[in-house]
Amino acid sequence: xxxxxxxxxxxxxxxxxxxxxxxxxxxxxxxxxxxxxxxxxxxxxxxxxxxxxxxxxxxxxxxxxxxxxxxxxxxxxxxxxxxxxxxxxxxxxxxxxxxxxxxxxxxxxxxxxxxxxxxxxxxxxxxxxxxxxxxxxxxxxxxxxxxxxxxxxxxxxxxxxxxxxxxxxxxxxxxxxxxxxxxxxxxxxxxxxxxxxxxxxxxxxxxxxxxxxxxxxxxxxxxxxxxxxxxxxxxxxxxxxxxxxxxxxxxxxxxxxxxxxxxxxxxxxxxxxxxxxxxxxxxxxxxxxxxxxxxxxxxxxxxxxxxxxxxxxxxxxxxxxxxxxxxxxxxxxxxxxxxxxxxxxxxxxxxxxxxxxxxxxxxxxxxxxxxxxxxxxxxxxxxxxxxxxxxxxxxxxxxxxxxxxxxxxxxxxxxxxxxxxxxxxxxxxxxxxxxxxxxxxxxxxxxxxxxxxxxxxxxxxxxxxxxxxxxxxxxxxxxxxxxxxxxxx
Length: 489
What we know:
Elements: H1 2-57, H2 60-68, H3 74-101, H4 103-110, H5 123-142, H6 148-170, H7 176-201, H8 214-245, H9 249-262, H10 266-284, H11 288-321, H12 332-346, H13 351-355, H14 361-386, H15 388-414, H16 421-438, H17 446-467, H18 472-485
Helix pairs in contact: 1-5, 1-6, 1-7, 1-8, 1-9, 1-10, 2-3, 2-5, 2-8, 3-5, 5-7, 6-7, 8-14, 8-15, 9-12, 10-11, 11-12, 11-16, 11-17, 12-15, 14-15, 16-17
């Protein structure tokens, strides 16, 4: 776990810095400087781009990670790298033709409830392509065990440039409409920078050759396209559905709540960047016991870190919502529902990495497609009745069912088990501290109250987890830090 903990720690720190910047943007700058309409519009464009991104990437970011370690010679690896970088270009051509042919119909459909979307429709595929090639070149770096820089660009760089653009909007350097186009430009810059970094890590020797195992590669790629679409629809499909049933401003209110809840998934996102290629390598070498141990370690480590984040959010949620404009304050229930779904998905550890590196990934994909259908149906039922709360409930139910299905599949088919008795202890500890702190409010300014409560929660949570030895890996990190400062517990 050495390289995992090292790069995961760096990635976690970077990701939380990015989320801190994003929190400033989401909770203050976007609502105040952009207003609900253009905040929602920007969010909708990015969500739509993220949904179609797997079609442009055609799954090559995952295919690259899965197959790269299987090639024995440097020549084969270079051939494969060239294939993963160049083949998606060919796929963009037919997609572009289809998009042009049906452009008017698509535009009329998505702008039926909110005509403001119509003017910016072309930005959706543009940003989708930028996102796709960012992921491909990020994977290029990751297979060479360089995950930190790409994570910095993704988590910090994008949000920092958005902050600059928002300040430019406030200073009247750009208009609201120009801000939307600047956002698209930021994603283009992120793609270009990551591409050059990937080439720095491994200098390309582009060649137009087809890998020997192209059949296996393309078969896997086809299913990854579908699975990526499933995952992104589960992540952003609710916002697309809201656009079809409600005024676009509601996407802004929903986005604030979901952003707060998404902070819970940061540890998983950070660890996944480095765990994925290691999981692929262990599975390729048939090291079942080592893989099972990695599964358990990633599960309890993510549960401990993610549980802490969730606890801090939940006990401070009322004070946190006092900081945002009043029209956004109805989303507390959304935070709880989305947050719980993220927490349950997080405690599954490297479950996704295991599934996508087995011969059984097709069956899980079919389950995913079924649950996307379920999500759409549930949103169609609950959004007209309950608004954004209905969408949150549909998301909670869908993601939870999807996570349970994936867990049972890995347990039954691969005989890998993520949970131990520490899993139960960690849940009970988190729930007990929630009951203690949720109803306890300090009579101070919101930020001071949040800081004081978070400090108390941190001290108790870390101390109790350390004493119960919930995660030996994290205890070692704490021991190392305490030893440096000369403190004994």
